[in-house]
Structures are given as C-alpha cells and as structure tokens.
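Researcher: Please predict.
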Amino acid sequence: MQTNKRIFHVDLDAFYASVEQREAPELKGKPVIIGASPGKRGVVSACSYEARQFGVRSAMPISTAKRLCPEGIFLPVRMKLYQKTSSVIMESFSNFTPDICQISIDEAFLDMSGTEKLFGTVEETGIKIKQHIKNISGLTISVGAAPTRFLAKLASDYGKPDGLYIVNKGEEIEFLDRLELKDIWGLGKKTLERLKDMGITTIPALRELKEENLKTIFGQSTSSFLYNACRGINIDIYSEKVKHSSISNETTFQEDINNKNVLENTILELSHHVMFRAMKSGKKSKSVSIKLRYSDFTSTTAQKTLDHHIHSAEEIYQQSLKLLYQRWNGSEPIRLVGIGLLSVEDINTPEQCSLFEDSFEKKKKVEEAVFNLKNKGSNITKASLLKNNDKH
C-alpha cells in the first residue's frame, strides 16, 4: 500500500465569470454576475471576484445581487461554452496523470503519487500544471496539494485565487489551525451555529471534544465528520474510485440550499454534462441515478431503469426530477447533488428498434447535431438551457 500520496485538487478560479472575461476582455476587472437578468425571478449562478467584493455570491437571489452591486454586469449562463472549455482542460490533465477524478465542471482531483521523476517536486509540479492551463485556456487555476483529497480541497480554497498551497505529511494539524471553523469544506451553517452556541468557535476547540460527546449532540454522521475533519483525517466526501460502468457528475454547493429553482437548474446543467460525456465516449445507458447529500451528511440515492436507452439530456433531466422529488421533501437543505448514467455500454451494441419515434428520440437528433457542431468549434447552445435561464 502506497503511503506517500500526492493528491492535487485543481479548481478553476471563478470559472463561469472568468470564461466570460476571456471571451470579452473588456470585462476584465469588472464585477461580472452570471445568472438571471435583473428584474427577473432567479438566482446568481456564479460571479467574478470583483463582484464578490460587494458581497455577491452564488445561489443569491438576483434582486439581492443587483442591490449589493448595482454596477454589476449581468450575463446569462452559457453552459455549452463552459462545458467545452471544461472538457479541453480536464482532458489536458492526462498529460500529468491518468488518475483523474473530475467532481464538477471546474474541479478535479489528480493523483500525482510517484511522478516526482517526471515533473519534480510538489511545488514544481503545481507550477507546471498552472502554467499549462494558462497556456491552453487563458484561465487561472488554484492548486492544493496534500496527502488526502479532503486536505487538498481545503488547500486549494486557502490559496485562492490563482494559488498554489501545499500541505506536507505531518503538517496537517498546523495547516488546519490556520483556518477558521467556517473554512472546513462541507460544514453547514446550522452546524456552525450549534457549535457556536456550545462555545466552539475554532478548530482547536472542536478538536478538544470527544467523539462520544459529539454523537450525543449531532448524531453519528455529523459527529464522525466533525471528529475527522478537525484532525485532518480523510473524509469520504468523494468516492475514491470511479466506477467505469457509470458516467456521473456532481456539484457540492458552497452553502446548503433548499431552493427548488437552484436545484432544478443544477440538475439540468448536470444532465447536459453527463449526456455530453456519454456521447463523447460513445456510451449509452438505460438507467438514470441521482445522489443527494443533506446538511447532516446523510446521503441517499435513487435510480430508474427504463425499457429503452436514454436518448437525450432532456430525458435524463426529466427522469432525474422524478427521482429528486421521490427523495427530497422540498425543504430539507441539500449540500450535494449528483446525476449519473448506470450500466453504460458501447453505443454500437445492438438494440431493439421502436416502431414509432418518441419526443426524446427527436431531441436526441437535435443534441447529436449540437454535439457535432460543438466539436467543430461552434458555441451553439441548446434552447432548453436558455429557457431555463430565462425562468431565473
């Protein structure tokens, strides 16, 4: 068993907004806010660091963002453009390691263990990766390096933006004690409030509590998370191994959310991302799955197997919404949502043909046309995503 793990977490800085600033250089240095148009009902999908200085953040009502930042430049989500940029960047990480775990459109874990002779020290490797991404995309990334995924994630956040922060083995506690309690990735607002009520406002103070005492207050899942997180023990936020028989993507929200519009919009984006990956890799599936993680760290999954292969992102989206409302009561805060295709197979595997063409089959042909145009360099965007943005 390998003990000298070198895990990198790479995170594109203010990704959606940075792509827009790259496409329109006159937007650089300005507060760019991606999401609904002012005056319309909806939320912020993403924003630039300049907008964050005004207090704007993702999932915030667009009306609040306009009030906080009246001079903000409000732009619609262009998911196809972001997916295309993400795809190029994520594929380029294979120049450094074959062990890549993409966890969202703008984040991935790279297992760089054993690459010292190829790329040098951790710092030298991080610099090379950052420069490589800058060269191929014009964008900046923050890199966190540590012995575990959880610490690598915290390290990349600590160094943002355009950062490179390294946590060496044996430095875990020292690094954690530099952070604020709210900086622990995955620690929700309600849990923070309960800890504050107990007089626990720092990571060292949290470390003083015994796990048994935590269990009586928070229950098994949350107490286990808290106990391990403040000690730098790896936490299974992301599965260690990617199942090769599935294609999935998931998003962890910066803050727990229970906003129906945000959830549905996120699921729509994930559905298109998963379908694009399936088409690109020449795979198909009959089974859709959804994964939810709640504010107390408990998780639930659901899946639906159809009697035909999935034809479009729209079909993934519709099935995922049904699964969402089977598992979610509409009010409980959610910290993570994931969408996947299970038991994928080669797209050329023979299947029984239907006598009649259904609506999803027609949408499949549209999406295939979009996919082919996109691979030729077009920035065409499916109307379903534009319509969804108009709703918000």
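Model: The chain has a mean pLDDT of 85.
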